[in-house]
Structure formats: C-alpha cells, structure tokens
Amino acid sequence: MRAVVQRVFAARVEVSGELVGEIGPGLLAFVGVAKKDTERDALKLADKVTGLRIFEDEAGKMSRSVLDIGGGLLVVSQFTLYADTSRGKRPSFDRAMPPSQAERLYERFIAAAKETLPEVRAGRFRAMMRVVADNDGPVTLLLDTLAPL
Fold it and tell me: Is there a catalytic annotation at residue 78?
C-alpha cells in the first residue's frame, strides 16, 4: 500500500458538493492499494501514518505525532498512486488492485487508524472527490509498504 501524507492546518473532502469529511489540524492521507497488498499491509501503513512524528515540539523539532497534538486524520482513496507512466504519457493503472478488492483493504486501513486516533474521517471510495487542503509547512511524505517502513 502507498500513502501520500500531508501535514495540514485543515482539510476537507466533498462529493457532488456534499461535505463528507473534514478535519482541523492533523494529517491528510491519500491511500492507494496495489494488487499484491494484504491486510498486513493495511495494518502496517495505518500504524506508520498514525505514529508519524512530524509535528513540532516546543524546541521546533519534529517529534510529535498526530495523536500527541490531538489532531485528526482525513483519509482519501487514491488508486492513481499506482500510475505507471514508463511507457508514455498516458498512465496505466495495472498495478492498482481492482476496486472490488481494494475497498476492503482501504476500509481496514481506516478501521486500524480509528483504533489509535479519536478523529478519523474519510472520503467516499470510488467517488469523484474535491479535496481541499491547507498545508502546514508544507510537510509531505510518501510511504510505501514495499519499501522499508
């Protein structure tokens, strides 16, 4: 699984003009699922995202997690994180897990995050979404369960 994680002052996601998820300070995580991913990957990624120490302490060092600051997590499904453009300019999404299977792991990621954080919101799987983020820093990280986490 892959996630692009952004530290935000606030973020929200809308579907057809309807607000479906919103947080104040915290993390916005775009999450993609690959064909070979398992429940173990979902749990591993959720643990990494919720424990990331990317918020500053009193000394200005990144040493606090989203839980430490009492922040929220907004999760947005993002199969395009598995786009392959090595053969031209039109992306191929062959490495992404089919939606019927990916949704289960996406939901497992969210459930695991909710076991750690009191405020977890999410977009709508397979929906066209409008995501608005007020980035903090900006701090943006790419996480991948295939790479050492």
Answer: yes
